[in-house]
Amino acid sequence: MTYFKPATLAGCLAVAISSYPAFAQETFLMDGVTAREGDNPVVEADKYKKDCPWTIGMSHFGVNANTWTVQVAHESEAAAAKNDCITKFILLDAGFDQKKQVADIEDLVAQNVDAIIVQPVTSTSADASIAKAVAAGIPVVLHTGRIESDAYTTEIQGGAEHFGKVMGDWLVNEVGADGKIWVLRGLAGHPEDTNRYNGLLQSLEGTNVEVIAEEHGDWQYDKAKNLCETLYLNNPSVDGIWSSGADMTRACVDVFKQFGAEIPPISGEGNNGFFGQWIRDGFKSVSAEYAPAQGAAGVRAAVALLEGKELKKHYDYNPAGWDVDKAKQYYREDLSANVWWPTELPEEKLQELYGKK
Q1: Whether 50 contacts 115, CB under 8 Å
Q2: Where are the beta strands (DSSP E) in the chain?
Q3: Using a CB cutoff of 8 Å and minimum separation of 24, what contacts does 201-204 make?
Q4: What pLDDT was estimated at residue 4?
Q5: pTM of the predicted model, to two decimals?
Q6: Could you tell me the maximum CA-CA distance found in the chain, to the nearest angstrom?
Q7: What spatial distance separates the first Cα and last Cα of the chain, rounded to whole Å?
């Protein structure tokens, strides 16, 4: 996905003025994002400063993996479109293919883009190509998945162990120390799946909670629905369900309703369709926050570097879980099940992409 936009002198001057002096104020990346405590190197001011216009590239691990990943692409493109200095934004879709992601990043380097944003397919898939980009003088912003290398310029990391533990702590409290649970994981091999699961394991330490079934639903509605149907038919006696989020929670809730069974405590994520279920059906749940607006935050970080602002190397996004009252504040009956909260998309774009016709 690529768009071009004519640069405006006023827009470029506004960006230049806002970045002077580079160290005057801390850069806003996204609500809930803070610099990591402890050892956190500084990306010094002006290291990557460039006059605009700019071309920014993005390597997305898989745009069409589910509705959340689609919205990340929309959030990224919308944030880039709002900045007059970004005259070309190139979004490449790796489609969960490690080799494709390596080729995509190397292609962006060859095009001599001004900054690259990377959502890694796996914890190692992008390491070498990221190192090549940085060696070529191109800053790399990492988000939505940690990698084993530290060659990137700055990272914004949410979800992960914190996400899994927010849901795990809540579920242990609901089912008790001897409860029996199902575990619905995301895409096998993806760093976000591994890290969220590790957060659950932290919650289970010191308890006798038994995992009686563990399956990968790939964060997809259809696959998770089939899994939950099979699990229910094999053994419907389950005290609670830890779901790694995305569309899987909504799918599993639909299965219990399909069989006319009581919905057990089940963890969820900020999906509009899930929020509607939660509010209408009144089952016990918690929603971990993982905004698709991380796409916009990645663009903002790239812009800050090109403006010459000082950034830290590591930023964390570790919000508290949501209860149903907070879900009610965000739920929109007039929008489809496919929109995710919180979002930075303007109302006009929300209606265009998700409005019910």
Answers
A1: no
A2: 2-4, 33-35, 42-43, 54-60, 86-93, 115-118, 140-143, 154-158, 180-185, 210-216, 240-243, 268-269, 287-288, 311-312, 314-317
A3: 201/164, 201/168, 202/161, 202/164, 202/165, 202/168, 203/164, 203/165, 203/167, 203/168, 203/169, 203/171, 203/172, 204/168, 204/172
A4: 44
A5: 0.88
A6: 65
A7: 26
Interatomic CA distance for residues 193 and 198, integer angstroms: 9
- Check if the beta carbon of residue 269 is closer than 8 Å to that of residue 133: no
pLDDT above 70 coverage of the chain, percent:
93
Taking the CA atoms of residue 116, residue 119, residue 124 and residue 125 in that order, the dihedral angle to the nearest 10 degrees is: -80
pLDDT tens figures, 167-200:
999 999 999 989 999 999 999 988 889 999 999 9
CB atoms within 10 A of CB 194: 20
CA 104 to chain centre: 20
Quick check: 235 and 211 in contact, CB under 8 A?
A: no
- Nearest residue to 318 (alpha-carbon basis) of 164, 183, 185, 184: 164
Closest to 255 measured CA to CA, from 269, 241, 271, 272? 241
Is there a contact between 285 and 268 (Cβ–Cβ < 8 Å)? Answer: yes
- What is the 8-class DSSP label of residue 26? P
- DSSP helix/strand/coil, 259: coil
User: For residues 58 and 51, what is the distance between their CA atoms, to the nearest angstrom?
Assistant: 20
Q: Which two tokens stand for residue 100?
A: 């494709």
How far from 347 is each of 63, 325, 326, 335, CA to CA, in Å? 22, 22, 20, 11
